[in-house]
Amino acid sequence: MFSFEDTYTPQVEYDTGRRIVRYVLEGRRSKLVLEFKSNGAKVLGEVSYDGPRGWIVGKYLGKMLESLVEDAVRIADRIAKLRADKGDYSDLLASISWVSKLLMKSVLLRSELTMIRKGGLLGYVERLVEEKILQEYPVVYVSGYGDSGTFRILFVGGEVRGVYANIGGKEYVGDERVLNEFEGVTRVKVYGLLVKPEEVLQR
User: Fold this and answer.
1) pLDDT higher than threshold 60 for residue 103
2) % helix / strand / coil in the chain, to the nearest 5?
3) Are residues 132 and 191 in the same domain?
């Protein structure tokens, strides 16, 4: 009696400056919007509905949002555990405060302005961070910015153990494939950690 069917097209909108992620489910007869805002200490969620039976659906929006947040927390905890188990520090690279701490305990080894061809960034970085550097510094941090956006790469023990990128205002954490999207004039800097890895590789 109070049910109806609809077909939804999902959309995801980002506003990194205001720290907002908005999920929009646009249907033929209705629209559902989920919005999450971060104030640095916690994430606030809002949900709105526009469509048939709004007075009924509205009663369940709070429970719907609560359930989604609980699922998101469980998934985030699971991902964090998996990354920790395999030594993935991408989540740390997404934190400006952690990167600042890392830089304070590191030395600038190289700084180059170069032209990157699409798909060639990681290969360029691996050539730039030569074996001699990896042997001398157990933790090497590489950052870059240019026409495509910004990126951060962390080498630990000679292997890539963290990737962060921001392209067009959209953030990517832990996805090495996104580095293939970088192209154009890019400033790349290489830093070597001067202290023991355990002093900074902590969550």
Assistant:
1) yes
2) 35, 40, 25
3) yes
Neighbours of 70 (CB within 10 A): 10
Question: Which of 40, 56, 85 is the last residue in one of the domains?
Answer: 85
Tell me how many domains the chain contains: 2
- Alpha carbons 128 and 120: distance in angstroms, whole number: 12
The Cα 137–Cα 175 span in angstroms is 24
Measured between alpha carbons, how far is 182 from 152 in angstroms, rounded to an integer? 12
| Structure letter (DSSP) for residue 155 | E
User: How far out from the chain centre does Cα 52 lie?
Assistant: 36
Would you state the pLDDT for residue 101? 93
User: DSSP string covering 37-60, please?
Assistant: EE-SS-EEEEEEEESTTHHHHGGG
143 and 151 Cβ atoms separated by less than 8 Å: yes
Token pair for residue 157? 């023990």
